[in-house]
């Protein structure tokens, strides 16, 4: 399945240049960016910070002079370009980056044409524009998430975490991860990623060195990558959790306390490595145990009790067996 194609259109008058890395990184989750355009008056000194980012991120600047005071010519240019791109039929969606409500009608019109519209803007963005988009993301949140990511000289640990995220997302959607797809996803996320920077001649060699985390295997003519399934460790975790619940003498164990016990006994334990976003979801899949909600903040893990119907069914089955034995005799 081919990646969706998006046009990213940025209103420089209403968005700070400090968000550009976070914007482009977020869009790799949706698909491939085929248009990268930014609109503004580049003769204006206020646009100087954006000018520094244009070449580094291969963004096409669209010049729009402010011919009339009080009129936002930038908005008009962006809207006209968006409709032109729509009629080319070359994209599957748009990303409109602005904190201005003037693009509300544009977002609605694009969605009427079957386009997905990803909106991005600061927290001050009016609700009307947010509601008109298919998805709206706060730039402040993206910037906070992006703070710890290095723009250059990406650490091998960062790449490893990105690979785990890609494989886990595919597995959650019932898909396997091919080596080629993995390489493409990494390049979309980090355009300057090159395994040679880490001393390897190929991506497969790079991944083979992380044998504690990943497994490479071949199916037909395709090389696939998966997370190493540490079944033994998972069994140990589940056994330990059951042991803690059994020792509670029927009172059960508070979920938060269970989390502290797990991290104390297994310092490297990370619930996301087992395909779950929270500890609550992890323990909910352990047979023989159930989670009881006592209040909005208190959840307790207890042994699952058999329903009244189960013993009755079992007793009925035993009675039937006894009757059959008597008939045979």
Automatic annotation (TrEMBL):
Xref: Gene3D superfamilies: 5'-nuclease (3.40.50.1010), LOTUS domain-like (3.30.420.610)
Sample GO molecular function, one term: RNA nuclease activity
InterPro entries assigned: LOTUS-like, NYN, OST-HTH/LOTUS_dom
Region ranges (Disordered): 309-329
PROSITE patterns: HTH_OST
Ranges of Basic residues composition bias in the record: 320-329
Residue ranges of coiled coil: none
Start and end residues of each HTH OST-type domain: 155-229, 233-306
Name of protein: NYN domain-containing protein
Species the sequence originates in: Roseburia zhanii
Taxonomic lineage of the native organism: Bacteria, Bacillati, Bacillota, Clostridia, Lachnospirales
């Amino acid at each position: 399945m081919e990646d969706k194609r998006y046009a990213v259109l940025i209103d420089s008058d209403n968005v700070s240049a400090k968000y550009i890395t976070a914007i482009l990184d977020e869009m790799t989750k949706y698909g491939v960016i085929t248009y990268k355009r930014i609109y503004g008056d580049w003769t204006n000194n206020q646009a100087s910070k954006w000018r520094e980012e244009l070449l580094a991120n291969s963004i096409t600047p669209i010049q729009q002079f402010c011919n009339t005071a009080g009129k936002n010519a930038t908005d008009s240019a962006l809207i006209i370009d968006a409709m032109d791109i729509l009629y080319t039929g070359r994209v599957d969606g748009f990303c409109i980056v602005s904190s201005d409500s003037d693009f509300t009608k544009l977002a609605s019109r694009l969605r009427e044409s079957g386009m997905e519209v990803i909106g991005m803007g600061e927290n001050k963005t009016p609700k009307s524009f947010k509601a008109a988009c298919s998805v709206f993301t706060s730039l402040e949140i993206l910037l906070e998430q992006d703070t710890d990511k290095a723009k250059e000289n990406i650490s091998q640990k960062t790449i490893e975490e990105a690979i785990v995220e890609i494989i886990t997302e595919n597995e959650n959607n019932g898909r396997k991860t091919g080596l080629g797809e993995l390489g493409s996803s990494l390049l979309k996320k980090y355009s300057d990623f090159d395994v040679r920077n880490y001393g390897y001649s190929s991506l497969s060699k790079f991944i083979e060195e992380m044998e504690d985390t990943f497994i490479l295997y071949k199916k037909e003519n395709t090389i696939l990558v998966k997370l190493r399934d540490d079944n033994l460790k998972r069994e140990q975790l589940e056994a330990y959790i059951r042991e803690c619940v059994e020792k509670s003498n029927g009172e059960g164990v508070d979920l938060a306390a269970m989390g502290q016990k797990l991290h104390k006994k297994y310092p490297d334990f990370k619930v996301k490595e087992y395909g779950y976003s929270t500890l609550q979801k992890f323990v909910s899949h352990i047979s023989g145990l159930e989670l009881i909600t006592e209040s909005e903040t208190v959840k307790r893990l207890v042994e699952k009790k058999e329903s009244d119907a189960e013993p009755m069914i079992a007793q009925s089955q035993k009675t039937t067996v006894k009757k059959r034995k008597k008939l045979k005799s």
